[in-house]
From TrEMBL:
This is Energy-coupling factor transporter transmembrane component T. The chain crosses the membrane at residues 12-31, 37-53, 60-81, 101-123, 235-256. Keywords: Membrane, Transmembrane, Transmembrane helix. It comes from Peribacillus simplex. It is a multi-pass membrane protein. Coiled coil: none annotated. It is found in: Membrane.
């Protein structure tokens, strides 16, 4: 599957700064209780997500399907079973009020905002760049950063080993069994080789990292050097303007009359 994408200015923003800014925005969103303000901020983040992640619209919409389902399910749970004074509809356990409807939309847009921020970060940030930036700007210890990077590199190796074991089992007719006992033997046949292989690889990585002096010292050179540029200032300025403009529009030009 081809997952290539075009590189935009978001890809060139410092990964540590990007992570901190998006986390701060998530915390700010938790304290936004005005629906119009939340909708304005969510629209601004969705604009960034749709236009500047560098992926095709088809792929972006495909990735957005689970989060749209979360938006709908979260909103409906609050709308259909919430409490309020202005009753709109009631049937059995279902009770829709004006207050529950507004709160449901607020919770749904908040969940959509979190999803858009997470996807924007994951689609525009490479894990290796993130860990290099954390070591250089946040002063994360190299032994932890390189351990995480090594673990990420092991995931495709483990998937390939799992496929090899599965093919071997099929050749030997081991996959044809049925019933609970067959499931137990299959789990045992898969888990033991994978676990033993993971232990051996982890030991080799630990020895290699110790031999290359990946200790607590932070005085080391890096193949990738990360700093700050005008794109980082533009990234921060975008969210500052988004929060201020969103508040202004929510007061003077509300999307919903509340």
């Amino acid at each position: 599957m081809n997952v290539s994408s075009a590189e935009t200015w978001l890809h060139k923003v410092n990964p540590s700064l990007k992570l901190c800014a998006l986390l701060v925005l998530c915390i700010v969103a938790l304290f936004i209780h005005d629906l119009n303000y939340m909708m304005n901020v969510t629209i601004g983040v969705l604009f960034l997500f749709l236009c500047f992640t560098g992926h095709s619209m088809k792929r972006i919409l495909l990735l957005s399907i689970p989060f749209c389902f979360i938006f709908i399910s979260t909103s409906l749970a609050m709308i259909l079973f919430g409490k309020g004074e202005t009753l709109w509809f009631e049937w059995g356990l279902i009770s829709i009020t004006e207050e529950s409807f507004m709160r449901g939309l607020l919770v749904g847009f908040r969940a959509l905002l979190f999803a858009a921020l997470g996807l924007t970060f994951s689609l525009t940030t490479r894990p290796v760049n993130l860990f290099y930036s954390l070591m250089q700007q946040v002063k994360l210890k190299p032994k932890y950063a390189y351990s995480f990077m090594a673990a990420l590199r092991l995931i495709p190796i483990m998937m390939e080993e799992l496929q090899t074991i599965r093919n071997a089992m099929r050749v030997r007719g081991f996959e044809r069994g049925k019933g609970i006992r067959s499931v137990y033997y299959k789990m045992k046949a898969y888990s033991i080789p994978l676990l033993s292989g993971s232990i051996r690889r982890a030991h080799r990585i630990a020895v290699a990292m110790e031999a290359k002096r990946f200790t607590d010292t932070r005085d080391r050179t890096y193949y990738y050097e990360f700093g700050f540029s005008i794109k980082d200032h533009g990234f921060i300025l975008y969210f500052i303007v988004l929060l201020l403009a969103g508040f202004y529009l929510s007061v003077h030009f509300p999307l919903l009359p509340i």
